[in-house]
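Supplementary Methods. Inverse-folding protocol.

Structures were first reduced to a discrete structure-token string of length 102. This string, shown here, constituted the complete conditioning input.
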């Protein structure tokens, strides 16, 4: 469950900021991909988000392939919805095809 992972990340963030550099190091930065993926999973009204919003505002460091994988494997059983609109998923497919052809 995304909310459970988000809560665990919040605890870890608290520990990182309380710990010294010797113990925590760059651990919070190393988790940036996971933090963005979890943030994406727990936001509400994903079907209303545009591809531009997702790739520039919500998850700028995740690749289209990563976002596509998360989106197509995700089902929100709390609200009974898919992750993104079919149009956004189709746009991701087109971009991945273009990338693989280059």
């Amino acid at each position: 469950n995304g909310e459970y992972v988000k809560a665990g990340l919040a605890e870890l963030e608290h520990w990182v900021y309380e710990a010294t550099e010797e113990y925590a190091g760059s651990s919070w930065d190393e988790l940036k991909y996971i933090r963005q993926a979890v943030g994406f999973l727990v936001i509400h009204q994903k079907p209303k988000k545009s591809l531009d919003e997702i790739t520039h505002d919500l998850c700028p460091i995740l690749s289209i392939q990563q976002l596509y994988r998360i989106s197509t494997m995700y089902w929100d059983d709390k609200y009974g919805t898919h992750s993104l609109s079919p149009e956004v998923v189709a746009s991701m497919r087109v971009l991945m095809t273009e990338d693989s052809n280059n």
